[in-house]
From TrEMBL:
<dbReference type="InterPro" id="IPR005673">
    <property type="entry name" value="ABC_phos-bd_PstS"/>
</dbReference>
<protein>
    <recommendedName>
        <fullName>Phosphate-binding protein</fullName>
    </recommendedName>
</protein>
<comment type="similarity">
    <text>Belongs to the PstS family.</text>
</comment>
<feature type="signal peptide">
    <location>
        <begin position="1"/>
        <end position="23"/>
    </location>
</feature>
<dbReference type="Pfam" id="PF12849">
    <property type="entry name" value="PBP_like_2"/>
</dbReference>
<dbReference type="InterPro" id="IPR050962">
    <property type="entry name" value="Phosphate-bind_PstS"/>
</dbReference>
<keyword id="KW-0813">Transport</keyword>
<dbReference type="InterPro" id="IPR024370">
    <property type="entry name" value="PBP_domain"/>
</dbReference>
<feature type="domain" description="PBP">
    <location>
        <begin position="39"/>
        <end position="329"/>
    </location>
</feature>
<keyword id="KW-0592">Phosphate transport</keyword>
<keyword id="KW-0732">Signal</keyword>
Length: 362
């Protein structure tokens, strides 16, 4: 882990950042499959992460209304833990999570269908620290302070450790109320993976996971919606949520010090910068750690899970086409950027489209 030193952050508006990202990602991938539009029909079910749910609902609505009107895609935001569970129980056609399937889960998946699971990322997004008090917008936090807040070592906003990161900011003499996800959550995985990689005591006491044994003096909320509501309704509230929920609810957010000592605002550009630092192997099993430069450090991906076999032909065709459309259509990328998600770069899209083609190909 690099030594951190405080340097002023550069603020980038979401609209400007979206334009920069889309300039590199929108103009599609040339080798996408050819489909006669209006030819698909059938129903597809999915379940999983709440993290991408606002965007998934926009993608689904646009695809059903303007791309393939004979298709019905249902997605339930039950949390990443629920998405993995329902996928491995063969209860849905596809699952979604902010963490990839581990080897043991891949083994279970192959036993369920008698063929391999297919998993691939479809977007990147930031997990932000949302704040109840608008006057604290832009508050600078580092991983040690964030871990201290959730471990209740730091209980007030005017704590010396917070004051040292925020010279000149008038910090309230107020109690901090940390809010966490009470359900199995990929957002929790991204957040705790970050703290585990950065803070030794956190790694020893809590570690990473979709479901954590939180300190008793913290408050739980179900889904991004529940955490957002708890932050809004409770004085002193601070909670980790998907960036899109913070944007939609106009919440104050913290800047987070990255590996190069830069306090970074959670903008789309900063999320994209973080995703570009990630090393992504052929099996698409990766975490986004040790982010420096202009990258926002608490960044994660969303994975989709499907199977190489066992689908009806219509179902498989819809699955392949919908997720390929997500990665190749200008409107799909525009919707992602508007909601604060980072579309993937062209080369990564090309690799993922090859993986999507494995659905029902076994």
């Amino acid at each position: 882990m690099r030594n951190r030193s405080f340097r002023p952050a550069r603020s980038v508006a979401l609209g400007t950042a979206a334009g920069l990202v889309l300039a590199g990602c929108l103009a599609g991938v040339d080798d996408r499959p050819t489909v006669t539009r209006g030819s698909l029909s059938g129903a597809v079910t999915g379940a999983g992460a709440t993290f991408p749910d606002p965007l998934f609902q926009e993608w689904i609505a646009h695809y059903e209304q303007r791309v393939e009107t004979g298709v019905d895609i249902g997605y339930q935001a039950v949390g990443s833990g629920g998405g993995i569970e329902q996928f491995l129980a063969d209860a849905v056609d596809f699952g979604s999570s902010e963490r990839y399937l581990r080897q043991g889960e891949l083994t279970v998946a192959s036993e369920v269908r008698g063929c391999a699971a297919v998993q691939f990322p479809v977007l990147f997004g930031a997990v932000v620290l949302a704040l109840h008090d608008d006057a604290l917008d832009g508050l600078v936090l580092d991983p040690d302070v964030i871990a201290g807040i959730y471990d209740r070592r730091i209980t007030r906003y005017d704590d010396p450790a917070i004051a040292a990161l925020n010279p000149g900011m008038a910090l309230p003499e107020a109690e901090i109320l940390p809010v966490h996800r009470s359900d199995g959550s990929g957002t929790t995985y991204v957040f705790t993976r970050y703290l585990t990689a950065e803070v030794p005591f956190w790694a020893q006491r809590y570690a990473e996971g979709t479901d954590i044994d939180w300190h008793d003096d913290t408050l739980g909320g179900e889904g991004n919606e529940g955490v957002t509501r708890a932050v809004q309704e409770n004085a002193g509230g601070i909670g980790y949520v998907n960036q899109s929920y913070a944007l939609a609810n106009d919440l104050a957010t913290a800047r987070v010090v990255n590996e190069d000592g830069q306090p970074i605002e959670p903008t789309l550009e900063a999320t994209t910068a973080a995703s570009e630092e990630a090393s992504i192997p052929d099996d698409f099993q990766f975490d986004i750690d040790d982010i420096g430069g202009s990258g926002y450090p608490i960044t994660g991906a969303n994975w989709i899970f499907a199977y190489e076999c066992g689908y009806e032909d219509e179902t498989a065709a819809v699955l392949r086409d919908f997720w390929t459309w997500v990665l190749t259509d200008v409107e799909a990328d525009r919707l992602a950027a508007e909601l604060g998600y980072a579309p993937m770069g062209r080369e990564l899209k090309r690799r993922v489209i090859e993986e999507i083609a494995r659905i029902n190909a076994g």
